[in-house]
Fold this sequence. Notes:
- Helices cover 35% and strands 20% of the residues.
- The chain is α/β, with parallel strands linked by helices.
- The chain has 2 domains: 5-105, CATH 3.30.1330.30; 111-268, Alpha/beta knot, CATH 3.40.1280.10.
- The strands form 2 sheets. A 7-stranded parallel beta sheet has the order 8-7-6-11-9-12-10, sandwiched between helices. Strands 1-4-3-5-2 form a 5-stranded mixed beta sheet.
- Helix 6 (131-143) packs parallel to helix 10.
- The protein is elongated, with a radius of gyration of 20 Å.
Amino acid sequence: MQGARFISSTSNPRVRDALRLRRRSHRDKADLLLVEGFREVRRAADNGYWPRTLFFCTDFFLGENEPELIEACGRAGTELVECARPVFAKLSYRDRPDGILALSPQLHRQLGDLRMPGAPLLIVAEAIEKPGNLGTILRSADGAGADAVIVCDRCTDLSNPNVVRASVGTLFCLPVAEASSNDTLAWLRKHDIRILAATPHAKTVYYDAPLAAGVAIVVGTEQYGLSDLWLKNADLRVRIPMRGQSDSLNVGTATTLLLYEALRQRKLS
């Protein structure tokens, strides 16, 4: 690829530096995150998040659109680094790499950066522990057209490569802010946004709850549930009916159900 440097050795310092970004301490120090995959990098670029560095290997390409993406990144000022097959195999954290891996600036958005429309649909995710679950929440929020996701009291780093992977790049498609639960609660009250808490102990079934008006759907982990702060301050509590022996769903699955019920009601209203 024109303008790209070529790396043939797995011991190249650029490779070692990129591998260090798998650790949160190094990501935070460099203020970078790893974005692997054509779809993920494409979505980041389409939303104005151009990589700082793009590693690629033509041996792993799965389609014909990769060169166009690489050239677009180059025009945007991205450093292009072509890799020999063993080099990219070492860089990749996927079982089936597709030859595209980017080093991109971390996202830093706070509550004050959010701009809400009328009747907003928000997800508040409290203390989500697993990167895959947080990524699924982001993907579902994008799919249902949510206006923002607020990550409270985070246990999982938003820049974790597995969050990016599980979100399929939708981390870059919608506003995602980070804040404490206390600050988020105050922000929601200031903007007169109703709070709906999802808990197995609620009496109201989720599809009987009014979700067409502005609402923040608050979800927590299936192991511990929501904190007392959210349960006590919720304007409404809802549950998802469980007919088997399990008493709760995976938080990503539960969030998806709630989001699409809100979408259904808004289409009918």
